[in-house]
Write a structure and sequence with these properties.
Order of helices and strands: EHEHEEHHHHHEHEHEHHEHEHEHEHEHHH
Strand content: 5-15%
Largest sheet: 7 strands, parallel
Number of helices: 18
Amino acid sequence: MIMTGNKNIHFLSAADRINYGDLLFPLIFKKIAEENGYTFNNYGIVRSNLSLFGALPTKSYKILLRTIKSESGKLIIGGGEVFFADWRTLYGFINPFYSKALKYKRIAALEKKIRFSKFYLCFNQVAIPFCPSKNELLNDKVKIYYNSVGGSLPYGKNKKEIENIKQALNNASLVSVRDKRTADELKKLNVNSKIVPDSAIIISSIFSKEEILENKTLDNKNLKNYIFLQLGINKGPNNLVQFALQIKKLSNELNLNVILCPIGKAPGHEDNIILKKLQLIESDFHYIEPKNIFDIMYLISNSSIYMGTSLHGLITAQSFNVPFVGLNEKLEKVNAYTTTWIGENYRSLSFEEIDKTLNIFYSWNFSRIAKKNQEQIKLVKENIFTILDD
């Protein structure tokens, strides 16, 4: 690779909260960028240091605004479900006290009126956190790139906000999105985009199994022949008892243990709450509290099958060529991704269809998925080098 232009990378993502997928993006991009001579600067909405959990520290959004105003370089929006979250939502995922306060109607109404979170986090300078315009950044020379992102589209916002979003995206140097659904929605806004797999698919080529072993904290003596099961707190079944019976039956039929492991623990992402309830219902299930992202990576990559509502849990399984089953057919982002990159038959199961897992497990085409993985890893790396070389 021939390096051109400014060597500064300013990387912005939601990596300031304990949510497994969000923590992967800067780790992946940093490794490739620094291998090719770039200086990597990592930012979140707030300053954070989750290094004990295996993540990179983040500088705050305010520091990003101050820095990018006087520097050129490249601003990369680092992936994940970032279209088009607002300041209130994002701060609620970071600050548990703020999140609890918003449950009171009067406080929520006051926040809507004065927009405290927006002022506190960016001095009211940027309207949409992960969709900043060059005008808002006060630097026409900065180049902005979207690295295979996803998320909800801006319906419900007023016409002025939508027009600003369209302008910001059309002025970006590259808008790459992770699934066809997002690309189709952007077309409705007259925004062209490039469909690229989620960058987390390359973790098996970034982190070797030896490196994962060195960094995990788990004792792996009894960790074999198991289903890795994850559920999001607001994405699980209505009847947890019935679901536990179905999973127990499945584990008996497959002769596999069941490991319950949370992937997200930030406010609004507390997998641990619902999984601990599940463990109380079925004592044969083993609940494991991960101490870092490598514990999660290890457990998924060494499982016999992954089952869960987390997209990045599923993508991790795919990357390490572990059979996977998405749960909760109502989760559009998971279905949008799997149907784009795996096939129409890989939609998530409803919680009443757990028995279908047997056929999925025994008919899993490892060679087909491995081939797709290599194709998708190539696309992700090409996209990253397109950004670096531009």
